[in-house]
Fold:
Amino acid sequence: MNFTILITAPVFDSQGAYSAYQFAKNVFAKSHSIEQIFFYNAGVYNANRFIAPPSDELNLVQLWQMLAKQYSIKLHLCVAAAQRRGVIEKNLADGFSITGLGQLIEAINASDRFIVFN
Structure:
């Protein structure tokens, strides 16, 4: 099964983004695949390289980066949502790319399932 995941939850203040990360890990554990992970609305904060959680908390930005690198996952952000929230090329974490909603539509069409976390 091939999934596309949409995340609208911020990196902190909500369980949504971490739940999406756990789901993505389990997709691979079950030998499925992910077409793309798309960050929209407040979800774009997951790509801010300047996120600096305390040392006793998870660094979800780094976890996304490691997952993407390990499994060659595309991590895309909506350009308009990112610009509205100040997530631009200068502070974009490695492994993430800024794209348009067209990329999300293409990924949905290429997937068996579309899952939203907010």
